[in-house]
Design a protein that fits this description.
About 50% of the residues lie in helices and about 20% in strands. The mean pLDDT is about 90. The chain has helices at about 15-45, 60-70, 75-80, 95-105, 155-170, 180-215, and strands at about 1-5, 50-55, 85-90, 110-120, 130-140, 145-155. By secondary structure, it is an alpha/beta fold. Helix 5 packs antiparallel against helix 6. It binds ligand 0O2.
């Protein structure tokens, strides 16, 4: 039996306890993903995951996001409204790998998928593409298990390259980048989409050749 991830005011008075929960959730997710990757390599002789990074949102960034969204800046709001205090980014080679990895993670019994935002099927107007899942994973504490939220972003190397430059530009200009830079980013997003499509087709062609050689 797990408890809800929202701790009451009394339970949550300790910021360190809360951050410990998120940190532990990240460790568990990272281990899961590492095992999935190793199992895939050993059984299927194929690695869908290029690399994985994880981070805990900084206190400054937590407060900024709560204020931006018009919420109280307290511990209960933080748990209720912020989905990405614990965040993991999985970078794959091909778009098809993203869905494979998402399915593998969702199939774990202890993982509950709360929300999916598929910015690959529905890219943002600026060109942003990525597959986001908000999940909970139980963290076992002395008082019982606590389901803790983790945001998982899954994207290709090309999408990740684009998103990191866009993020840098967004913050440099505080969201008000000059039009020519936005246009250029939008053009780059189109090139990145075309590149992802061609790399996927190329890989599928290679796999077909491999298959026919094995016959
Ligand atoms: P930072 O600085 O990366 O932490 P919701 O979770 O639904 O309440 P939210 O958080 O806006 O609302 O969800 P969404 O859209 O899934 O975005 C979560 C995170 O995805 C963002 O966190 C970014 O890391 C990334 N992201 C979303 N949109 C963009 C985008 O247009 N460009 C880039 N580069 N990254 C994006 P933060 O807290 O907004 O930012």
């Amino acid at each position: 039996m797990t408890r809800d991830f929202i701790l009451s005011g009394d339970e949550a008075k300790d910021w360190e306890t809360l951050m410990f929960l998120y940190e532990s959730a990240l460790k568990k997710m990272n281990t899961k993903i590492e095992i999935l990757k190793e199992e895939f390599i050993s059984v299927h002789k194929y690695n869908p995951i290029e690399h994985v990074t994880s981070r805990l949102k900084t206190p400054k960034s937590i407060v900024r996001k709560l204020k931006r969204e018009g919420h109280e800046t307290d511990i209960v709001s933080m748990q209720q409204y912020l989905n990405d205090i614990a965040g993991i980014r999985i970078v794959c080679s091909f778009t098809s790998d993203i869905y494979k990895v998402a399915d593998m993670i969702s199939s774990h019994d202890d993982i509950k998928v709360l929300l999916i935002k598929n910015y690959i099927a529905n890219p943002k107007s600026n060109g942003y593409k990525s597959y986001h899942m908000i999940v909970t994973i139980p963290v076992f504490m002395s008082g019982g298990a606590v389901d803790t939220k983790v945001e998982i972003q899954i994207r290709t190397i090309a999408m990740d390259f684009w998103a990191s430059l866009e993020h840098k530009i967004y913050y440099k200009f505080e969201g008000k980048a000059p039009e020519y830079l936005k246009d250029e980013l939008s053009e780059c997003a189109k090139m990145i989409n075309a590149l992802d499509d061609r790399m996927l087709s190329l890989n599928e062609a290679v796999q077909e050749l491999d298959g026919s050689e094995d016959e």
